[in-house]
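Protocol step 4 of 6: record predicted structures for both targets in the notebook before any analysis. Target 1:
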Amino acid sequence: MSYKEKILHPFLIAIFPIIYLYSETINEVPPQQMVLPIILMLIFSTVFVIIVRFIFKDWKKSALVVSLSLVLFILYSPVFAYLSGAFIGDFEIGRHRYLVIIFVIPFFTLAYLIYKTKIQLGNVTLILNAVAISLILISSVNIGIYTFEKSFYENDKNIEIVENKTLTPDIYFILLDAYAGEKVLKKYYNFDNSNFINSLRDRGFFVHNESYSNYANTIPSLGSTFNMEYFDVDDKYQRIYSMLPQSTTIKLLDLNGYKIIDFQKHSIAFDIPVVDSTLCKNENNRYTDTRLLDQLLKYTPLSTIIPIVPPEQDMETQLCLFAELPNTKNMFDEPTFVFAHSLVTHSPYYYGPNGEEVNPPSMDYEHYVYSIEFANKNMVKIIDELLDVENHPIIIVLGDHGTVFLNDDITYEEKIITSHQNLYAIYFPDQNYELVEKTSTAINIFRIIFNQFFNADYDLLEDKTFSSNTGEWYDLDDTTHITINNKMN
């Protein structure tokens, strides 16, 4: 069979979304997570071609129909997202019942024409093979460019070595994903969180009355916090690194003799190269981990009929995090940095206010509040245990961002408020919060810690918030910032 006769396009089109999605989330998942989805899609496309071959009695026609169906399948969700809420007059076109018809009619029409055609499809096969190969190569080149830029960026980054530190307190960074600020909870969720806030203050914490995340998403928010700097607004999303693995904070702590402890990752698969202990590990390995596959399903029509939820093991991991976090204070003789990223307060919500399982998991407002209550009860117990030592540690309790209040009755500015306003609480052994009081975002957390406890000399950065609600990062200007602050009063 000549090259022109070789049928490659249905198989390449089948795996293209996997490679493309990996190129867009390369900072989140290891490459091994592509293996399982690629194997499944190759099996599916092979079986699909064979089944269609029995109907069409021709391999090239069968492959062409399969490629057509795959392309329409891939395009369905983006088209639906674009048309969602769109009207032609009083007729809402952005609904599944109508969009399915729009996709199904062209598919069967083209499939019929392919079935009846007498045209030799050798050239069509050659062109589709070339297009599919080009798509794969473009994503592969993007992966290669990212890998090169990441290596260059990391090698070029200067890390300040702390001189003659007088204190080396343990540091606990507890990240409560999507934990909104007190004012947002009160105004939009009718939940008074003052008891928890006051319990933190009673224990010596400084809690901002009104703080904002620098970004409204975990990846850039966490990355900027650990790197102690902003990312350029025009940076590509996958370029926003070196994130946690190669961040300034992790490198600096490692160079200064800290033991690094983290917990089993969930949707954000940051692997810290210098970690000394990872707690609450699940049994998944990099090849059987389905996080990339789950993410892929979210961008397909299957997301409307297949519930995409973390496995039971991930739920157990969340409980394990709360149980094991206090035990980290006795793990090493050396100073310790503990990073604990909890998804309990991130949708979907699996727990009631007292830890009772919610089955099936919920996405509603009420259960978000329940998850906050459940997290609060655990945080108070954990903090009391962490402070039950002679040399008190530094404790950071932070919401990496707020939560999107899904209500069409609120304005766009209010949605920005709810997605950015977050919990920001910090405990210093010396109770000196002079520098913390000068900031309202997390960008300076580690700059302040290194200055105050390690004799470093970092300048404090101006507080800024960025939004990506439009798909592109943009800096919220001073007018918007003032409006946000005024709306919360």
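Target 2:
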Amino acid sequence: MTLGALTLIAALALDAGQTGLDQELIRREIRSHHARTWACYERNLAADSVTDFRVVLTFVVTPSGQVESVQAKSSIAYADVEACLVSEAKSWRFPKFSGSAVPVRYPFIFKADED
């Protein structure tokens, strides 16, 4: 197993009543920041050889497309990774939409490939 073989797996969960912002647009925006979210892992966990790690980001996308109320909860308490991901999420910008703010829960699962 090598750290270079690590991959990021992510899924998306929206509030069930949400209609103002398409799931695929949310996925696309988050995936466009893959390198920066991956860097949060590499800077903070790679040296510790943590290879099975899950972080759930919970945030709200406002109709203006900005992200607010970001929280992170990880499977292992790594405050530096959580803080890095929260900081990254605050910089994301989604398309403007009509309606009310959209709550999003987005889990990131960092897993190692076996060599």
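Step 5 preliminary note on target 2. Confidence is low (pLDDT under 50) at residues 1-7. The longest strand covers residues 52-61.
Proceed to step 6 after PI sign-off.
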